[in-house]
User: What shape does this take?
Amino acid sequence: MTDKPKLRVLFCGAVLQNFFDLPGSEIGKVWAATGEMLKGIRDLPGVEIIGTIDDDQTMVGTSPNGWPWTFYILADVPDRETAVAACNLFRTIEVGEYRLWRYIRVEARVGRELVIPA
Assistant: This one.
C-alpha cells in the first residue's frame, strides 16, 4: 500500500484597498486576523508549510488584480479539501463586523511537486 501523494499549494495573498482605507487605529485588527489565518493554515491537519514570502517591503500599496501578490505561502496539503479549508479561513475569520476577505484576497494554485532530475 502506498501513501497518497500530497498536493503542493501556493497560497497567494493580495492586500486590498479596503485595508489602506482604514484609519490607523483599525489596522491592528486586520493584522491580528491575518495572524489567526496564518496559524489556521499551519495548523490544518496534514499541512506542512514549506516556505513563505512577504513582499511588503518592495510591493507597496494594493494589488486588486492579484499580481503582484503581497505574500505567498507554499505548503504541502493532504487533499483538495484541505486547500479549500485554508482558503475558507479568509471567509470565516472576523475583523470587527467584516471578514478577512474584505482586506486580503487569496488565490490558491494547486498542483504536484515538480521533481528536478538528478
